[in-house]
């Protein structure tokens, strides 16, 4: 029951984040769909974590080089996702209002991804591997 409630909450917050992203693209005042390229960052963000989890066998260690490298790459992906709409707004490819909506969507989506890994990434009796 608790895992189902967490999954529903994460789905709801992901939908809110994608709504912000779509509003930044589809409102008639903005009308440019360049910010949708941020979706690429959403999809590649968890990949370093998955690779590090698969490669590192020592789950009891406080820190490993592979895990630290995965954190580094994930941080680079997240920072790039926040920088991309700012660069688009600076070169006037999108308006600053659209940039704000995309940044709000980024914050919600990345917090949702973090919440997913905090709730389902522990490897206990109910984990993301069952999905």
Helix proportion: over 70%
Alpha-beta content class? mainly alpha
Helix and strand run:
HHHHH
Based on CA atoms alone, the radius of gyration comes out at 17 Å
Overall geometry: flat
What low-confidence regions span 5 or more consecutive residues with pLDDT below 50? none
Taking the alpha carbons of the first and last residues, their distance comes to 15 Å
Instruction: Report the β-strand fraction as a percent range.
Output: under 5%
Count of runs of 4 or more consecutive helical residues: 5
How many domains in all?
Answer: 1
Mean pLDDT: 87
Main sheet record: none
Got a strand count? 0
Protein name: Leptin receptor gene-related protein
Subcellular location: Endosome membrane; Golgi apparatus membrane
Main location: membrane
Keywords: Endosome, Golgi apparatus, Membrane, Transmembrane, Transmembrane helix
């Amino acid at each position: 029951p608790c895992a189902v409630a967490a999954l529903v909450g994460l789905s709801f917050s992901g939908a809110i984040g994608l709504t912000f992203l779509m509003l930044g693209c589809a409102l008639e005042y903005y009308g440019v769909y360049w910010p949708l390229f941020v979706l690429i960052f959403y999809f590649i963000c968890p990949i370093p974590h998955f690779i590090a989890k698969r490669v590192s066998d020592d789950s009891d260690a406080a820190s490993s080089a592979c895990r630290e490298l995965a954190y580094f790459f994930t941080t680079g992906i997240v920072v790039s996702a926040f920088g991309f709409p700012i660069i688009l707004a600076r070169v006037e490819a999108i308006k600053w209002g659209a940039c704000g909506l995309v940044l709000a969507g980024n914050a919600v989506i990345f917090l949702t991804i973090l919440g997913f890994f905090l709730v389902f990434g522990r490897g206990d009796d109910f984990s993301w591997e069952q999905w």
